[in-house]
Amino acid sequence: MSNSRKRHEALLYHAKPKPGKIAVVPTKKYATQHDLALAYSPGVAEPCLEIAKDKNNIYKYTSKGNLVAVISNGTAVLGLGDIGPEASKPVMEGKGLLFKIFADIDVFDIEVDATDVDKFIETVKAIAPTFGGINLEDIKAPEAFEIETRLKEELDIPVMHDDQHGTAIISAAALKNAIEITGKDITKLKIIVNGAGAAAISCTRLYLELGAVRENIIMCDSKGVIRKDRDNLTSQKAEFATHQDVNTLEEAMQNADVFIGLSTGNIVSPEMLLSMGKNPIVFAMANPVPEIEYDLAIATRDDIIMATGRSDHPNQVNNVLGFPFIFRGALDVRATKINEEMKLAAVHALADLAKKSVPEQVNIVYDEVSLNFGKEYIIPKPFDPRLIYEIPPAIAKAAMDSGVALEPISDWDAYREELMERSGSGSKEIRQIHNRAKRNKKRIVFAEADHLDVLKAAQRIQEEKLGLPILLGRKEVILELKEEIGFTADVPIFDPKTDEESERRDRFGVAYWESRQRKGRTLTEAKKLMRERNYFAAMMVNVGEADALITGYSRPYPTVIRPILESIQKDNGISKVAACNLMLTKQGPMFLADTTINLNPTAKDLVKISQMTSNLVKMFGMKPNVAMLSFSNFGSTKNESSQKIREAVSYIHRNFPNAVVDGEIQADFALNPEMLAKEFPFSKLNGKKVNVLIFPNLESANITYKLLKEMQGAESIGPVILGLSKAVHIVQLGASVDEMVNMAALACVDAQQREKK
Ligand SMILES: NC(=O)C1=CN([C@@H]2O[C@H](COP(=O)(O)OP(=O)(O)OC[C@H]3O[C@@H](n4cnc5c(N)ncnc54)[C@H](OP(=O)(O)O)[C@@H]3O)[C@@H](O)[C@H]2O)C=CC1
Ligand SMILES: CC(=O)C(=O)O
Ligand SMILES: [Mg+2]
């Protein structure tokens, strides 16, 4: 896109449909006169009086505890310089947006017309009671240092100048990983820091804490190298003044290992890069234009590890990765400060996260096949959903250990759960299944592990400790893909077609034949069948060499279900299997059956389907409330289809009077409690929230679940096969990595349940 197009697009984005990027949203009901009497006078006086009695009550009755001020005077806006408070507002609104979307923190952006240090400090102190924390932003050095130091001393809420410490934390994490990749020794690194402002000074101080050596660092400002013999140095610049006899950035960069740019755009040339040592680490972090453009740097040297502050290239080293999560952790324990211990905890947590395998949704957002720790991925991406539950706990814990937390956390699992809830990362039901899977890890065979996405799912199962994957498929392909995605764990691999597995094929073949010999299979045929992955995998589960099986990714459902039904026995008392989809709808979880197996179930089948689905609901820790759906309500239309549902319901009512099952009923009545109560007060579903929908036939169930998926964007787990004697599950053709991970976690819980029986 041309520069003028980009400019136009950016201006339009900010102007339309409403000017700006954030707004205030009420969090309480306000529809009635009664609501307003609580929200405002007279009701509002009660919390006022409580807070007047004890100021701490402000955290109980107002939004203070989750409200951060993003405050600037506009003197160092990005790398645009001193453009004034009004012109800084888009950046501050932008920070507000990022705080909200990444960490669910509310922000008031405040642009202060005060360049005088005392006046600025007075202003911030005067408004501080409103906020749970203060994020200072884009205030130039050296004033930024005094402002932050004094506000930290004088206020009892966390104050952080983001350009200093946010940047320091992120760049230190990236530097730590870049050093690891190049195998360099931090104590020997020759580091050039260009810029000696708020960001550069604080970053360099943190690198010293990580082990960098002051004598090996040369810092430059707009006048060149900061030498000991220069006059009028600020105390911060004097901290990094060098004895070395160098004057210009160009001279300083010769044989350097690391370049840190926190200055201004386009001031490093390809020649300067070429003069650096082997495997140079270059962080050109000036915004929006880096000290040297990413593409130019990469084209100049192929041994470089290159990062910028921008989102449009690999390795975005930008404080966006820090401030939302740092404040989240600090607010959640009511930390009075953000101290060195908390900063270092953030550095290590971020650096470590980059080494773990990346969730598929991150690959998708960034249009990558597979992001792996390495030269082009030294630091997590801002859209990584794990940041919200990995970084704040590290900060909160460090705050507690260093004695600055007024409200310590004791239940860390509950805290992680709360963080996930805040970010809307996955649904509660899925998290519950994951947590239960972790408690007793089961061996899960992935029958198509020679497919990239299946292998990625297995990798996540391994790394997130959800289960113990067993990989099935062409061994050489699996090994190659494993290497490609950085799946280093040593997990069992089986290739059913190879000689290596002939003993297993024979054994499985005999076991299979014993159950099929009266159904037309010969022993020779049976043994031959075991070369096929789904028979082999199913038999692994049957003979107890695995606890669960996931398959179906690469072949159409009917071709997968057949070997499964031939190999795996049905549960006691079950003559037909069925399938259920759990849809995570905006109204809550909803179980739909039979979505994929029985074309036109009989009344007897419907009874079984309802019972098997109810058992699945219980596995999720919920109580089933079952609506048997139709186009008719309680006998309003007499025809074959509604009649069979009536029969099924009456059977259930006679034999299982405590089951909450009713119908036949139309979908809108089933899902609308008021309508149901008004028209059919006699129904067993009256006063209940329906969470199971049993359909009269496969067509209606299948169409509904696909509509929900496409039109409501409802996440789905399933189809889950009901009625087999083993934890065997078939995913949809081409299922996503997330879908397979969820299904594998479910299979694991399924296997745990069967063990208990
Ligand atoms: N990627 C990220 O996350 C972040 C990036 N930044 C970027 O860092 C830069 C500095 O920000 P900040 O520290 O807040 O601002 P400051 O105003 O505090 O500091 C700017 C510094 O840059 C120096 N500088 C300006 N021009 C040159 C030059 N040609 N050569 C060498 N040094 C120069 C100034 O020198 P002097 O002291 O002589 O005036 C000053 O030391 C900005 O571009 C900003 O966008 C900042 C924070 C986060
Ligand atoms: C990213 C940032 O805070 C800056 O460039 O100032
Ligand atoms: Mg900034």
TrEMBL record:
Classification via Pfam families: malic, Malic_M, PTA_PTB
Keywords: Metal-binding, Multifunctional enzyme, NADP, Oxidoreductase, Transferase
SMART domains named in the record: malic, Malic_M
Transmembrane parts of this sequence: none
Domain Malic enzyme NAD-binding as annotated: residue spans: 164-400
InterPro entries noted in UniProt: Aminoacid_DH-like_N_sf, Malate_Decarboxylase, Malic_N_dom, Malic_N_dom_sf, Malic_NAD-bd, Malic_NAD-bd_bact_type, ME_PTA, NAD(P)-bd_dom_sf
Signal peptide (UniProt feature, chain positions): none
Recorded superkingdom: Bacteria
Family designation: In the N-terminal section; belongs to the malic enzymes family.
Protein name: Allosteric NADP-dependent malic enzyme
Organism: Polaribacter dokdonensis DSW-5
Lineage of origin: Bacteria, Pseudomonadati, Bacteroidota, Flavobacteriia, Flavobacteriales
